[in-house]
Request: fold
Amino acid sequence: MSKVAEEWRRGYSPKKPRKPLSNINPPKPSITLPPDSLRETFDAVLQMQRDRKFAKAIRAVIRALDNQNLTEIEQTYLLIKRAELFRRRSARGVVQQALEYLLEINPQEISERYLPVYYYELNYVHRLMGNHDEAVQVIRHSAKASLACSGSQPQVDYVAALANELLCNLAGIEKLSTNQAQQFENKLTELRAVAEKCGEYWGGRWALNCAAHTLQVRIKANDARGSWKLLEELRNIYFDSDVTNGWDSGGYQTISLLEGLIHVLFPQ
Reply:
C-alpha cells in the first residue's frame, strides 16, 4: 500500500490493472515449514490457530500422529507441533503438559532441520514457567543448531534464538545500569540488522521484535527520555511498513502494551 500511495503522489498510472490484494501470496506461516507430506494438515491446523481453536487443532495433530506410515521426521514434527499448540492454550496445566511432551522427545533423534524448532519450543515453555536459567541453556542449543543448518550464515531462526537468550538474561535483572542497558541495546541492534538482511516475512517480523525488545531495555533502565524516543521510533517502523514484510497485526499487541507501560511509568 505504501508503494501504491507513492506512485499515486507521483501521478504514475500502471499500464496493467493491479492484482487484487486477495491474490497476493500470504506471508510464510512458520520460519521452518513442515515436511511437504504434512503440508495439508499443517495448513488446516494453521487456520484453526488463527481462529484460536487450539483444542480442535490439537485433535487434528493427534489424528495425524495415528498414521502408522509416518516417517521419523514427520512424527517428530507433529510431536513438536502438539507441544506448541498445548502451550498456546489458556487452560490450567497446559504449559506443564507441553513441557512433558517435549521432554519425551530425544534431541539426538531429531533431524538437523527441526532441531532449532525443538529447542525454541522448549525454551519458550521454560520461559513461561519462569525457568529462565534453564531457558538460556536450551536456547543456546537452538542457536548452535540453526548455524549448523544454514552453513554458518545466520538466518531468522538464529536471530530468534539469540533474541530469546537476551530476554531470558533480561528477565533476571530487576533494574539495568546504564552500561548494562547499552550492552543489551548494542546486541539487539546487531540482531535487528541481521533480521532485516534476511528479509521476507519473518526477517521483518524479528526486526520489529528486536526494536520492541530494545524499548523494553530502556524501560528497565528507568530511562524516561530514551523510552519515549524509542517508542516514537517503534511507531514509525510499524506504521511505515506493510504485512508482506512481517510488520503485521501480530506486532500491534506488543507495541500497545509497551506504550501503556511508558505512559504509566514515565507520564508527561
User: Anything to note?
Assistant: Residues 23-27 have pLDDT under 50 and may be disordered. Residues 176 and 221 are 5 Å apart (CA to CA). The longest helix spans residues 178-198. DSSP finds twelve helices and no strands in the chain.
